[in-house]
């Protein structure tokens, strides 16, 4: 499937009082990887808006395996798992040096027609056609 990866270094302002990255910062990391994936597909938020669809996140699941600590360099990968009826992306946060899995996550987004605010039961062709061009 189609993937993208970013590399980040945990900053001091990301930490909680226990000196690990606060759990609420992980969605921000996922968002950065998701945007890299959507850029690769050619259907990031400006293209979504231009195509007449909104894509709210309706489900987000995170499994914290090991903590991320100050100055730790991590890789965040985003892989497109589903695209025909919903946009489901799977994530892995790993230590950049060792490859150890630190966090696993998924997000699910559904298409909503912007003009009518109606939920779509299948993904619009604007997304599907772009994805299919990238698949082998």
TrEMBL record:
InterPro entries attached to this UniProt entry: 4-hydroxybenzoyl-CoA_TE, HotDog_dom_sf
Superkingdom: Bacteria
Hydrolase listed as a keyword: yes
This protein's UniProt keywords: Hydrolase
TM region(s), chain numbering: none
A Pfam family recorded for this sequence: 4HBT_2
Keyword Hydrolase applies: yes
GO molecular function terms listed in the Swiss-Prot or TrEMBL record: fatty acyl-CoA hydrolase activity
Entry's family note: Belongs to the 4-hydroxybenzoyl-CoA thioesterase family.
Protein name: Uncharacterized protein
Organism this protein belongs to: Magnetospirillum fulvum MGU-K5
């Amino acid at each position: 499937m189609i993937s993208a990866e970013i590399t980040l270094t945990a900053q001091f302002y990301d930490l909680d009082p226990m000196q690990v990255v606060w759990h609420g910062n992980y969605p921000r990391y996922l968002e950065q990887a998701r945007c890299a994936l959507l850029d690769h597909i050619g259907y990031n938020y400006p293209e979504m808006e231009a195509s007449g669809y909104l894509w709210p996140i309706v489900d987000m699941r995170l499994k914290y395996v090991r903590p991320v600590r100050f100055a730790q360099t991590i890789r965040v990968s985003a892989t497109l798992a589903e695209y025909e009826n919903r946009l489901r992306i799977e994530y892995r946060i790993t230590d950049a040096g060792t490859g150890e899995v630190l966090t696993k996550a998924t997000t699910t987004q559904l298409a909503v027609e912007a003009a009518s605010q109606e939920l779509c039961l299948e993904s619009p062709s604007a997304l599907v056609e772009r994805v299919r061009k990238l698949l082998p």
